[in-house]
Amino acid sequence: MSRPETDMDADVIVVGAGAAGLSLAGHLLDAAASSSPPPSVAVVEPPPGPARSPERTWCFWEEEGGGPGAGLGAPVAASWRRLLVRGPDGESLGGDSPRRYLMVRSADFTRAMDARLAAAPSVTRVTGTVTAVGDGPHGARVSGTDAAGRPFALTGRWVFDSRPPRVLPPARTTLLQHFRGWFVRTGEDRFDPGTAELMDLRTPQPRCGLSFAYVLPLGPREALVEYTEFSPSPLTGREYEAALRHYTERVRPLGEFTVTGTEQGVIPMTDGHFARRAGRSVFRIGTAGGATRPSTGYTFATVRRQSARVAAALAAGRTPLPPRPHARRHLAMDAALLRALATGRVDGADFFARLFRRNRLDSVLRFLDGGSAFHEEVAIGLRSPVWPMARSLAELPLLPRRPSAVMPRSGDSHQRKAPR
């Protein structure tokens, strides 16, 4: 139910209805199953238009021992047990994975969560543009305007703001993971539906940073083919199209094919500190709360884990401060890698090829997903370019944190800038 014109009270207000906001709302319902009465929840989402996130795919590794999408509550579009990385010279790396790699389409996830929230009497949906979030005398207040320009104000005991940050925090190093993907249908069988190609490093490389293609087959003749860069700024639309044409015609020729859909995005890769708390009763979740892994851009699995912990804390009557999304040692290693890539001390394509060539696949996957043990991380570190990484790590305490630029929106086009 949408009631943008009405002031209301709720125990919990969730601002934003993307992956983080909807995940939290779903986990609140799970945790409230044993509560009587369950806490009231208001979910505030922007009206249709540019303020809403474009449709995209989210990928993650299934939990240890879990089936495809266990507990997700939304259909899994595809899954793969075999993972492949192609080195700059075409070398095939990877193999069978102990955990499946899953794809969820944002539209499917949103539809499933919309249906679930609509059936919950304790949940109210509010459509409007939020203009202010802050503490109040007895909790927090969210105010804004609906699509017709009418004001609304909500008060809640706790507020969780999942809106993506427009300005990144000060950082020593900031790169962007930016990409454009084509959903393609080929005239002949061109893909192995059982194999996800995480990185094809045969793409032309930027002077500092990294580029690769990402190929997720949906069938023998269908796949998502994505061009991705780690660099200081996005490309223009024409540059993305040229990169995809180059890959599908020269690097990995697909023959005749049709583009049936597209997706585009920008993900921050930064060693800046994202504050999880914005007031006594206001918290940030999702990318705004630091859920995005700085060295990989993976976010979806982290927001699922984070929201489950928040919901459990609320159900237990504790202050629901979102947990730290990543271990401090992982953030330190990520900061060193970002610095090494940004300065050109390491060749990005060689680094990631070496990562998969010299380490056990299950160890690499646990590291990328934030679940690796310390001894695995030591082994991975010793098999990476030791001196460039050690130099980058050692100089981090001496580097100032500088203000970062405004985050470009997913559909923005920018001219390429020289790497910093």
UniProtKB/TrEMBL annotation:
<protein>
    <submittedName>
        <fullName>Lycopene beta-cyclase</fullName>
    </submittedName>
</protein>
<feature type="region of interest" description="Disordered">
    <location>
        <begin position="31"/>
        <end position="54"/>
    </location>
</feature>
<dbReference type="InterPro" id="IPR036188">
    <property type="entry name" value="FAD/NAD-bd_sf"/>
</dbReference>
<feature type="compositionally biased region" description="Pro residues">
    <location>
        <begin position="36"/>
        <end position="51"/>
    </location>
</feature>
<dbReference type="Pfam" id="PF05834">
    <property type="entry name" value="Lycopene_cycl"/>
</dbReference>
